[in-house]
């Protein structure tokens, strides 16, 4: 069952349409009972940020997210997995990342989506640089210990 | 050996990638980081907190104890902040 699932992974500069990705996953199917979508957006940090610059490691970004997705497919009975991660300059309100998981029941879809995001945060080769609302180029965002801890809770 | 750098490691070293001839004594990732730090103050600035530097060999994460024998491309970068 899970062996037949081929994750859809896209690393792109352009925007994505979450509804269209869900439709592509579920179209023509009658066996899916639960779809979970997670969208990560660029926020303005209380008006202090004008943009985020996302740098990535081309090639490895696709490969690493593919490895993470295959681990999810091995751990939960999923009927579909889509991960889209953008790179380049994002303004507050812009989409950054999309995770879509589908399963027969909600628990697997929720857990797999949460696992995918926790692992993406600490293992997918992307780095965020902040640009201030006053026009200054800011600092690289520091990795959060909480993100590492979130990923660690999935280790068996 | 092809080395590639990302984010503040790239900015501090001042280039996105380079080809280097490694001395035979450099056998592991940790050896490579220590050797790079001797190449100039920009490398020392980028890699001074050696333990937090993340490394990928041929686009897969590795620990600092990993051997670099047979590697085609080694990437050095800060902890990741995507998602």
From TrEMBL, chain A:
Pathway: Cofactor biosynthesis; molybdopterin biosynthesis. It holds the Pfam family MoaE. Keywords: Molybdenum cofactor biosynthesis. Its EC number is 2.8.1.12. CDD domains: MoaE. InterPro entries: MoaE_sf, Mopterin_biosynth_MoaE. It catalyses: 2 [molybdopterin-synthase sulfur-carrier protein]-C-terminal-Gly-aminoethanethioate + cyclic pyranopterin phosphate + H2O = molybdopterin + 2 [molybdopterin-synthase sulfur-carrier protein]-C-terminal Gly-Gly + 2 H(+). It is an enzyme of class 2 (transferase). SUPFAM superfamilies: Molybdopterin synthase subunit MoaE. Converts molybdopterin precursor Z into molybdopterin. This requires the incorporation of two sulfur atoms into precursor Z to generate a dithiolene group. The sulfur is provided by MoaD. Heterotetramer of 2 MoaD subunits and 2 MoaE subunits. Also stable as homodimer. The enzyme changes between these two forms during catalysis. Belongs to the MoaE family. This is Molybdopterin synthase catalytic subunit. It comes from Ollibium composti. The lineage of its organism: Bacteria, Pseudomonadati, Pseudomonadota, Alphaproteobacteria, Hyphomicrobiales.
Automatic annotation (TrEMBL), chain B:
SUPFAM superfamilies: MoaD/ThiS (SSF54285). InterPro entries: Beta-grasp_dom_sf (IPR012675), Mopterin_synth/thiamin_S_b (IPR016155), ThiS/MoaD-like (IPR003749). Pfam families: ThiS. It comes from the Bacteria. This is Molybdopterin converting factor subunit 1. It comes from Ollibium composti. The gene is moaD.
């Amino acid at each position: 069952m899970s062996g037949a699932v081929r994750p859809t992974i896209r690393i792109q500069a352009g925007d994505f349409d979450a509804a269209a990705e869900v439709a592509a996953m579920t179209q023509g199917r009658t066996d899916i009972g639960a779809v979970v979508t997670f969208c990560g957006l660029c926020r303005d940090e209380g008006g202090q940020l004008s943009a985020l610059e996302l740098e990535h490691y081309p090639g490895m970004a696709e490969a690493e997210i593919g490895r993470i997705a295959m681990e999810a497919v091995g751990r939960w009975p999923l009927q579909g997995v889509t991960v889209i991660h953008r790179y380049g300059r994002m303004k507050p309100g812009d989409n950054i990342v999309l995770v879509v998981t589908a399963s027969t029941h909600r628990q697997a879809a929720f857990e797999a989506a949460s696992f995918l995001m926790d692992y993406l945060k600490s293992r997918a080769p992307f780095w965020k640089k902040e640009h201030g609302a006053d026009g200054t180029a800011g600092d690289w965002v520091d990795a959060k210990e909480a993100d590492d801890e979130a990923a660690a809770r999935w280790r068996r | 050996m092809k080395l590639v750098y990302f984010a503040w490691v790239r900015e501090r070293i001042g280039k996105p990638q380079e080809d280097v001839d490694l001395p035979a004594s450099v056998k592991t990732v940790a050896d490579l980081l220590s050797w790079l730090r001797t190449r100039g103050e920009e490398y020392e600035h980028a890699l001074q907190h050696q333990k937090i530097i993340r490394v990928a060999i041929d686009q897969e994460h590795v620990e600092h104890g990993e051997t670099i024998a047979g590697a085609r491309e080694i990437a050095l970068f800060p902890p990741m902040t995507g998602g």
